[in-house]
Design brief:
This protein has one domain (28-146): Beta Barrel (Lipocalin), CATH 2.40.128. Helix content is 16%, strand content 44%. It contains 1 helix and 10 strands. Strands 1-2-3-6-7-8-9-10 form an 8-stranded antiparallel barrel. Strand 6 (89-97) and strand 7 form a beta hairpin. The longest helix is centred in the N-terminal third of the chain and has 24 residues, at 2-25. The protein is globular, with a radius of gyration of 20 Å. Mean pLDDT is 88; it is low at 10-24.
């Protein structure tokens, strides 16, 4: 009888734990850490509550400049030029479109301070990240590699 009561009480907790584990295991394939094309930064891509994908810089090969952390000094908004490059959001608003495509997003280039329309194509351990102005035909694609 004690054993039955213990099982009845433990079972819901076990089921909740299994459901939480399963939810974590079902991450989207682009979620996680990616090196940019030059391997000078790692970007963490994640799915937000709005079901769109975003990416933040979480590692820089050279995080400091003149002994202080790098900032977003090329940002077109003067008030944002002192924000740190670490945790800077450079990917925004990507919507999953099929099995390998992520569209309707934006990519921010901190080297130029410009934001471009963007789409991402998943290719296993690499991503083709295309930035463009207007239509996708006029743009540039870089390849990012999955970071371990």
């Amino acid at each position: 009888m004690i054993r039955t009561t213990l099982i009845r009480r433990a079972l819901p907790a076990l089921l909740l734990s299994a459901a939480a584990f399963n939810a974590q295991a079902q991450k989207d394939k682009i979620e996680g850490l990616w090196y940019n094309a030059e391997k000078t930064a790692k970007i963490n891509i994640f799915k937000a509550k709005d079901d769109k994908f975003y990416g933040n810089i979480v590692w820089l090969k050279e995080p400091n400049e003149n002994g202080v952390p790098k900032t977003d000094k090329k940002n077109p908004k003067e008030s944002l030029r002192t924000q740190p490059m670490m945790n800077l959001q450079i990917l925004r608003h990507f919507k999953k479109d099929g099995d390998k495509e992520y569209n309707d997003g934006e990519i921010y280039d901190p080297k130029s301070g410009k934001t471009y329309s963007s789409k991402i194509t998943y290719n296993g351990n690499s991503l083709d990240v295309r930035g463009f102005v207007g239509i996708s035909l006029i743009g540039r694609t870089t390849t990012w590699e999955r970071a371990q």
